[in-house]
Amino acid sequence: MKYTTFIFERYSLDAISHVAEFVYAYEDGPTFVERLTVPSDVKIVESETLDRALFALHLLLGVSYWKAYCPKNIVVKSGTLSTGQANFWNTVYTKGLGQFFYENNLEPQSAVNFHRRGLPPESNPRLAHATGSSPESLFAPPEAPFPVPPAAHLHPLVPMGGGKDSLVTIALLKQMNIPFHTYSLGTYPIIEEQRKHIDAHHFTIQRQIDSQLFTLPDAYNGHVPITTIYSFTALLIAILNSNTHLVLSNERSASEGNVEYRGETINHQWSKSWEAEQLIRDYVSTWITPEVEYFSLLRPLSELQIAKLFAQHPEWLPRFTSCNTNFKILEKTQQRWCGHCPKCVFVFTMLAPFVPKEQLVHAFGKNLFADATLLPLFQELLGVKNFKPFECVGTPDEMRAALTLAAKNGAYANDTIMQYTQHTIPTANEEMINSILTPSHEHDVPKIFQSDIHER
Fold it and tell me: Looking at domain 5-130+152-296, does it have CATH number 3.40.50?
């Protein structure tokens, strides 16, 4: 059954139970309730800033339910939208769901329509057990620019994903003697293990998706902008915990798309792109709060550069994973690396020039360069077959550069993949390698967080 109208009904945050509820409905159809449980060690205090963050989360989390049937009519009962806000959410949905539209053969350019003028809020309190703010004040943009706190007052929050990138961010902050807190959306064994080795207070929000979503008849399914969801849930913690900065670990390689489709560049990693970072940064400062600055510390760096930095900390090699089998909603695994997905192939390749072969093979459980069945994945990652896989992987040039560097010590010379690439793929020259390993000037890293990696 197809529905014609999707409704953002209401949201609330109970200051006693610490449970936030976000309610959605299809007109003449099912109603959904998604819940976030905020950690008990943060104090919930009513504020207009908190309400703005909850409203943004209501709009963002709705993407999982809207995409089930993609109705043209979107009704926002929980608040009002300015033109700028509506444009932002139209962009987040359209580009963040690019892969979803591609895989379901849907038209992306006219699918999403947040109205420039939503319905006025009715008398429903947003914060249970607290008095409400006036409708006029809830959606007026903050006016102050980003504050510039002295170094002693820096209080950043770092989202952790279990992979190498957030660990490199943490290492850089430690080198700069900047204290920080960490955050994760959900509890995962790999992040719990990493926490034990990081001297920082950690916050976790538990997410409960409405189970009806997984049993809807004839519903569409597919990729959602998960990094954006991660970012806005982290922002909720940053506001409640008075963090001054929300420090992401998104690299410059994430800005490169996968495939062209109906006039749009489809990018699996759009939520991690430079475009998305700028849009989210502006939205947070304009429509939620200027007191939490959003940026990625690793934005100037390529995946290969990050791998080189990560390799300087061998203690993390057995304690990280980027393989998505560890983070599936409905399936759990004890396996650190599956050894046959694009993420495993890509990360193994990035680390191969910088980590001794014996250590790398031990960490991954096998030598991926010796597995001939992985050749099609290597070809896609190298850009010689189909297109770059829909995963959080870097560019074909980075693959070429990493394989060229890995070939220099001869450790992998007899392996199937290395022999194939040396005879078939053009070697990366020194100019290409230097360019990939040189930081970009395209970033919004505040000066107080900059180090030598942000200089050319």
Answer: yes
- What residues pair up with 1 in beta bridges, in sequence order? none
For residues 286 and 143, is the Cβ–Cβ distance under 8 A?
Answer: no
β-pair partners for 127: 13
Q: And the tokens for 301? A: 């760096």
Task: Residue 419: count other Cβ atoms within 10 Å of its Cβ.
Answer: 14
Cβ(205)–Cβ(37) under 8 Å? Answer: yes
pLDDT 10s digits, 236-290: 999 999 999 999 999 999 999 999 999 999 999 999 999 999 999 999 999 999 9
DSSP reduced 3-state for 109? coil
Q: Residues 205, 233: contact at Cβ < 8 Å?
A: yes
CATH code 3.40.50 region(s) in the chain: 5-130+152-296
**Burial (CB count within 10 angstroms: exposed 0-12, middle 13-18, buried 19+), residue 162:** buried
- 394 DSSP 8-state letter: -
Contact, 454 vs 425, CB < 8 A?
no
Residues of the chain with pLDDT under 70: 1, 117-152, 326-334, 454-456
Q: Which two tokens stand for residue 434?
A: 């230097």
How long is the chain? 456
Quote the pTM value.
0.91
Query: How far is the CA of 10 from the CAs of 76, 125, 184, 347, in angstroms?
Result: 9, 9, 25, 42
Q: Which of 1, 4, 8, 2 is nearest to 71 (CA)?
A: 4
Beta bridge partners of 207: 36
Q: Which residues, other chains included, contact 8 with Cβ-Cβ below 8 Å and sequence gap of 6+? A: 24, 58, 59, 62, 74, 75, 76, 77, 78
Residue 36: strand pairing partners = 20, 207
